[in-house]
User: Fold this.
Amino acid sequence: MPKFEYYSKNEDYNKRNENFNELLNEISIDLSNIDNSNQLEKIYSLFINLKENFVKENIIDCLYSLKHIAEFLNIKLLNNWINFELNGYNYNCSYIPQYRRFLAVYFFSDIQYSLRDDCLILDPISEILRRIENKEDYYIEIDDDECLIVSQIYDKDVNKLIVFCSNLSQIVYGIKTILSKFIWILDSKMPIKFEYQIPFEKKYIKIDISNSLNNFYGNLIYLINLMAQKTEYYNLIPFLLRKLFENLIYQIFQKALNKEHKDFYFYQQRPRSFSKLITLFNYFRNKELLEYHNGAIDDDSMQFLKLIRSKGNLAVHQLLYEINDKMINSWKKKTNNLLKNFFNILENVHKNEILIDDGERIEKIENILNN
Assistant:
C-alpha cells in the first residue's frame, strides 16, 4: 500500500518547506567551503561515480555516492535527506520537499470546492521508480462518506484516488535537480587534473601508456596509485579499478565496433552496465579481438574482471567494507597484466573494424545482452 498523507495545515507545511530550502542552502555553504586537499582526494573517486551515474540516470546509485561524500565531510543534514529518500519519509519529518507534494481538491457529490489540501507521497525513491518503470499508479481507497478528497484524478468507476505514474516523475525530477546542484558545487571544487602529482616510490599500476591514453586515464591511474599509499584509502581501490576497466572496455567497443552495433554497448540512451560489457567482451575476446592479445586475456582474466566488478560495487555501497593488504597485493600483478592487454587492444584495434553480418551470431549476442 503506497504511503499517502493528507495535509491541510498550509502554514505549518509551508514552514516545513522553508526548512527544506534552508537545509539546501546550508549544505551548499558546507560544500562550497571544501578546500582541504586530503578531503578532495577522499571524495574525488566517489564524485566520479556520482557524475557518471547522474548521466546514466541511476538515481539510487547517485544518492549512495553522495551519501558517502556527506559521511566523509560530516554533513549530517545532507546525509539525513538522502536517508529519507532511500528509506522513505514519515509524517512527522521536520521537512518534506516540495516535489513530494501533490494538490488535492475537495468534492461534495459532483460539486468542486476551492478548498485545497496537500497529498504527500512518503515512499522511498526505489518504490517510486519501480512504479514508474512498471507503469503502476498510486492509489488509495476513498472513504464512504460525502466528502471525497481527490488528487490529480478521481476514478469514479473504481472509487479510488489515483496519482498517475507519469506525475510521479515530478519526484524524480526534484531529486535530480538537487543532485545537479550538488554536482555543480562539487565540480567547481574538483580538479580536472591534479596539477601537482606526488612522486611515488612504489606504484600500484606500473605500466606506461601513450600521451593520448594518458589524457583519458592518467588522472585515474594516478588516483589509484595515490590511494594505494595509504591503508585507510584501500577500500576505494576496488571502486577505482572498476571504473578504470569499465571505461576501457566501453571505449574499446566504441572504437572497434561498427556503428550498426552501437546498441551492443550503448542502449536506450545510456551505456550498458559493466556486467553486460564484461559479457560482451568475453564473447568477442576469442575471435574478433584475439589477435590483439594472443590469448593473454583468458578465462582467469575474465573471472578477475567479475571480481573487480563485485568488489567495486561493494566498496561503493558499503563504506565500512574493509580491503586489506593481502587482497590488494594479490590483485597487483593481474591488474597490470590485464591493463597492459586492454591498452594494447585500444591503441591497435582498427576503427569500426568489427562488423557482424552473421544473423545467428547477432541473435546470440542480443540474447546474451537481454538476459
Summary: Residues 124 and 264 are 32 Å apart (CA to CA). Residues 1-190 form one domain.
